[in-house]
């Protein structure tokens, strides 16, 4: 009986070990795995991710790769499937350097590659934390984005900009294929700042051009900075803008409406409706949207209109609505005060949603994108009370509020089921529906903005708070 028990136990153990061997298959001997790293030196920085890139190969199959930086508490094991066997793997692993490390520190990244035959190899990569990752900064002096070159006055295009970079500048390139411009300035001595200043001649025919400026730095892993500028060469102004900001104001920080786009245009006669919110309001006319130069229309010492960045402001004597006409070619302008007769949307802050129209009280909120809390559903516009506009106590034709923008925005100011509603289209124009379709997309830096919807002007002003 004991003999039978012994034989039974022996048979069980043989079956058990046979089963284990089947679960853990063995592989024949093979050559060592190989590794090709993308670089032997990686640059990182505190509180910034860096990437470890390499190509792993094995003639039979890869088992694992281990990534270690003991000083940074990194110990990552990546295991590979053996069914089917993996003979090639492109490693791309990101790791963020702790914020408390110093920029002068350096480490070794240890990679251990093991294949299914238990062959292992090690590969070290140097990691330095003194990396420089910012592209060269290009600061335009002239021209600015959207600059209008009036060919009847001059066909000269001065290009003046400054490039700065901490690691030194390698080269600067100015290109415009349509103008035959392809100029590279190769710099020596790794200067951290360089000023480019050259004047190009435009063709006498009206056209639009894109000027591309590129700068490359001299960091070990080079950074490139690129700026594209749209330039309009024309025999007459395609648009004129009314600006009520002091000279020197950055006109690109606000999202919508600064400076204000014209209302009507016949030939070179431009007409504006404008609201002066104070007495003695100062305004200028601009030939471009993004800057006071090169075309800024104001007054000379004799009170005549001139195109000069040193001109003085036109003063609107009293608070209220004005009809303003200007011709930038003849340098004639007129200013006439008027009293609006359009509908006043009163008591907006006490609006009420109701399915029965007779019991409904109008409210004005916003539907759109890039606005915190907003969707394209008018019910959400009602529920999100922070998006509701209120009446401006100083002007019955203005609805005001504050929005937090999260980036590129588009909007329709709306009540229940789009009644009433003003669609925000191009150039800050807010047309009351039914009207022009097509919401415009406006780039905007994230932040809190003041909102003014002027229902008389049919203009929106969304300005950085």
UniProtKB/TrEMBL annotation:
Residues 1-22 form the signal peptide. Keywords: Signal. This is Uncharacterized protein. It comes from Flavobacterium magnesitis.
